[in-house]
Amino acid sequence: MFKLAPSILSADFSKLGEEIKKIEVEGVQYVHVDVMDGHFVPNITIGAPVVKSIKKTTKLPLDVHLMISDPEKYSNDFIKAGADIVTIHVESEKFSESVLRNIRLKGVKAGISIKPKTELKAIEKFYDVVDLILVMTVEPGFGGQSLITSTLDKVKELKTIKEKKGLSFIIEVDGGVTEDNIHEYVKAGAELVVAGNAIFAAKDSALAIKNLLIKGAK
After folding, report:
1. Which of 32, 39, 45, 116 is the most buried (most CB within 10 A)?
2. In the structure, what pLDDT confidence band is assigned to residue 1 with cuts at 50, 70 and 90?
3. Would the pTM of this model clear 0.70, i.e. be above it?
């Protein structure tokens, strides 16, 4: 069974606490938090103080995705704020294995993410030091993009590698997931699926979550 992580990037920030409470009762398993610094990606979102506030509103684990240039400098702030998973990009200017190890040492799950054009060989030496691998299925930076279908093969390859080597990392996908394509990615190997617009831009978010869970499990 896969798990669903609604991305609050697409939520109404004027009533963020209410938005999170609304999805919490619908059977989702995580809250996905996109952190952007305006440098690594061309957008700025939220910082650690907002994550700290979110933590007070929900019992769901916080899946914090750092799309920032200097994860070494800021990852500890998000851990202190209450992140349960901290994922950093291998393409970040100041990425290092020591950051991943430090995240784990602090008792938080460590994730590594790759952009759609980044090959898996860029992260293969980190397979045994991460708890999660996030395959971006759109270019990071903005919500509401269409999914890049070529990323499906990358998810399949990652699943094969995981099974052959007996590894335990979670395979996560993020970007452009809808009711129409979620099953393909779950079938390919995605175990944690991020969805933003498909949930928060829907007329009925509860129904959207229900349909995503049903269609992904088929």
Report:
1. 32
2. confident
3. yes
